[in-house]
Design goal:
78 residues; mainly alpha; 86% helix
Length: 78
């Protein structure tokens, strides 16, 4: 990663010039959403591991996660 700083500076210059700004912005949003979903999933696993939740709570959380993942996959393909 010795060129990380140079690549970052070049990317900032290109963004300032308006080169592919929409693509970079969309990619940044996807990475942000992905990282948020990962953190939420990790938190849910930690909560489930620390405290044994009732079966109905587990089913509600699982169904919400399944519904949200389907919406996310549909959003990514359009």
């Amino acid at each position: 990663m010795p060129n990380w700083w140079e690549r970052r500076a070049q990317r900032e210059r290109e963004l300032a010039e308006g080169i592919d700004a929409d693509l970079v912005s969309a990619n940044r949003k996807r990475w942000t959403l992905g990282s948020k979903l990962f953190v939420i999933g990790a938190l849910l696993l930690a909560i489930d591991w620390l405290w044994r939740l009732p079966r109905w709570v587990h089913l509600v959380v699982a169904s919400i996660a399944d519904r949200d993942s389907e919406q996310y996959l549909e959003m990514g393909t359009s």
